[in-house]
UniProtKB/TrEMBL annotation:
Keyword presence, Kinase: yes
Signal peptide: none
Keywords: Kinase, Transferase
Name used for this protein in its record: Ser/Thr protein kinase RdoA involved in Cpx stress response, MazF antagonist
Tagged with keyword DNA-binding: no
GO terms for MF: amino acid kinase activity
Organism: Ectothiorhodosinus mongolicus
Pfam hit, one: APH
InterPro entries: Aminoglycoside_PTrfase (IPR002575), Kinase-like_dom_sf (IPR011009), Pseudomonas-type_ThrB (IPR050249)
Length: 333
């Protein structure tokens, strides 16, 4: 079983970045290094001498349309302009084409590339105060949602829909959870029961505008930077239309079995309620969204098995998903 981001393809992308980075004023002798492989490939450009840095994201082939990418970048710029949250700037290309985008040639076809301001800070870890962190994330989520409730997106604005079918259906964007690494018959039966429970709860909850809309979608530690002023939010690649409560599920992505979920849920809600109120049914749905997200991530680990994150998690992540489903289902309502 092979995946997209093999060494040869990554070298190709790195070489491609060097051919177009001048479009953002990055000097030709800047050093390029791979920062991260997830859905996309992200590179760091460092100028010799003054040490100026830039972050370049090469978008995964065939996953985001150009209108989707342009919409993501538009939202980031608006959030900065209105000071809703702190997030790095999208840097304009010198030719001004395609709303800050450039394109590199690859064996997978032309790939969109965006360049972002480099900001200093560090990602939170489990060694940090998780209660304080989730309280801050709750506030960020509420500010984003308050903005979304009053904002009228411009014509052509489009982002992916994250609903039951696109998260957990047979044609889900991140793959089929049934293909989870190391999933045996017993585990599959339990997860099938969990998915039916999620579907039933989601169907009853609905998608009214007070609970469903544009979200960041991935407010986990890897997409946050801590500095003296608080948190900066990065990587809006998963932003799309979904339930507002999915922001909490995103905040504890990959660590669901390592933390006290009820404790962190209360911290998130504490920060959230400083800005925006929730109904009782919104709170009741949070464990449902946590399990839905975990199943979605379990599918992602299998479909993106070549990435460092997926390699580190492996079959053990599937077993953790089974454990979480069993635990949450025991307290279902």
């Amino acid at each position: 079983m092979t995946g997209l981001y093999q060494d040869a393809f990554l070298r190709e992308l790195q070489e491609g970045v060097t051919t177009i980075m001048g479009g953002w004023g990055i000097p030709a002798d800047a050093q390029i290094q791979l920062l991260e492989i997830s859905e996309n490939a992200t590179f760091l450009a460092s100028a010799p001498g003054d040490g100026q840095r830039w972050v370049l994201r090469v978008y995964r082939p065939g996953y985001r349309s150009i209108p989707e990418i342009r919409s993501e970048l538009h939202w980031i710029q608006l959030l900065r302009a209105e000071e809703i949250i702190r997030t790095p700037a999208v840097l304009p290309s010198m030719d001004g084409g395609y709303d800050h985008l450039s394109f590199l040639s690859s064996s997978a076809g032309p790939l969109a590339v965006a360049c972002f301001e480099y900001v200093y800070g560090r990602a939170p870890t489990l060694e940090d105060d998780q209660v304080a962190l989730l309280r801050q994330i709750g506030g960020i989520s509420a500010r984003l949602q308050e903005h979304v409730r009053r904002w009228q997106p411009p014509p052509g604005f489009t982002r992916k829909l994250w609903d039951f079918q696109t998260m957990l259906g047979r044609q889900a964007y991140w793959g089929d959870w049934r293909c989870a690494l190391g999933l045996d018959a017993r585990g599959k039966r339990l997860l099938e029961e969990a998915v039916l429970w999620i579907f039933d709860r989601i169907q009853r909850y609905g998608q009214s505008s007070d609970r469903f809309g544009l979200i960041h979608g991935d407010l986990r530690a890897a997409n946050l930077l801590m500095d003296a002023e608080g948190l900066q939010v990065i990587d809006f690649d998963d932003s799309g239309l979904s339930w507002f409560g999915m922001d909490f599920a995103g905040a504890i992505s990959f660590i669901e079995t390592e933390v006290d979920i009820p404790l962190l849920q209360e911290a998130f809600l504490d920060g959230y309620r400083q800005i925006r109120q929730l109904q009782r049914e919104d709170v009741y749905m949070l464990p449902v969204f946590v399990l839905a997200r975990r199943l979605q991530l379990t599918a992602w680990v299998a479909s993106h098995h070549e990435t460092p994150t997926a390699k580190a998690l492996g079959e053990q992540f599937t077993q953790g998903t089974i454990y979480l489903a069993d635990s949450l289902m025991a307290h279902r309502s």
